[in-house]
Amino acid sequence: MERRVSRVVKVGSVVMGGDHPVVVQTMTKTDTRDVASTVRQIQELELRGCELVRLAVKDIEAARALRTIKREVSIPLVADIHFDPRLALASIEAGVDKIRLNPSNIKDRAMVREVARTAKSASVPIRVGANLGSMDPELTRSERAHALAEEALGEARFLEEADFHDIVVSVKSSDVREMVEAVRIVAGCSDYPLHLGVTEAGPLRQSLVKSSAGIGSLLLEGIGDTIRYSISGDPGLEVDAAWTLLAGLDLRRHGAQIVSCPTCGRCEVPDILSLVAQLEERLGEIVKPVTVALMGCVVNGVGEGKAADVGIACGRDQGVLFVRGEPVRNIEPSAFIDTLIAEANKL
């Protein structure tokens, strides 16, 4: 897979673009003015592997709260700005690491120039984030995709005319095909780092399917520098999903990955599904990359178990433990989970 070449943009301690790894980010679901709750959520997201976090800045109190939040967390903060560019200026003054502007709802060109000047002075990048919401719903999907791309590119060009060049671009839609088409347009005629996501993707199951289809297809084409799943719920699930996708595409790994069979009539362990659920829960505390396999029979089990860092291939009354491809010993079913957890922790 040949990766699209994009310019490099530094966001606090995180570097995106060029040949740097795809960055995992999410957005807090708290009221930014509630500093304690916001800090607690960001710290939890850090533990789950979040590398960049965006916060809603809807008034001056929220902008000022960023200063205190910034002191309590270690990952870079992105201020999400709509309608009022003065909030961007206040967020930069508070020490934020990046600004997100929506070109469809900030029309004061003189103020956008002032934001660009101030951001450049403070070495704060700007993400131009265009969304479906500003597009005419009467347009066809293809027409909306082109309009979405042009809106983002037009705003980026405006910033460059103001001598600002640390720009990241996103073009998002709740329509997967529309989002993919718009991103391809931007990718084909610019070198901006691209933030990928299907916006307003819905509850967990729906979002996992839509986001994985859209983001994954673009990443497989070598397009994309940072990603965010949009889930109506816990932002930690967004981080988990992003890392699972990156691992599934063999781009990056964080924490444990489980290889387990879907089960069928050949399964030799009657409660394999509950064992996999236990394994998933207990592996949640591991942050180093490790692949753990639990296979219900020997048809594919031996091969998959050997391919994982550690795995068990189940037979009728016992399983075979494999560590880095080598069979180690036979294991009784009652010891499957404890053995896998112990071996994973060793690795």
Automatic annotation (TrEMBL):
Its EC number is 1.17.7.3. One of its GO terms (molecular function) is 4-hydroxy-3-methylbut-2-enyl-diphosphate synthase activity (flavodoxin). The keyword 4Fe-4S applies. GO terms for biological process: isopentenyl diphosphate biosynthetic process, methylerythritol 4-phosphate pathway; terpenoid biosynthetic process. Residues 257-345 form the IspG C-terminal domain. InterPro entries: Dihydropteroate_synth-like_sf, IspG_bac, IspG_bac-typ, IspG_C, IspG_TIM, NO2/SO3_Rdtase_4Fe4S_sf. Its cofactor is [4Fe-4S] cluster. PANTHER family: 4-HYDROXY-3-METHYLBUT-2-EN-1-YL DIPHOSPHATE SYNTHASE, 4-HYDROXY-3-METHYLBUT-2-EN-1-YL DIPHOSPHATE SYNTHASE (FERREDOXIN), CHLOROPLASTIC. Converts 2C-methyl-D-erythritol 2,4-cyclodiphosphate (ME-2,4cPP) into 1-hydroxy-2-methyl-2-(E)-butenyl 4-diphosphate. This is 4-hydroxy-3-methylbut-2-en-1-yl diphosphate synthase (flavodoxin). It comes from Candidatus Cryosericum septentrionale.
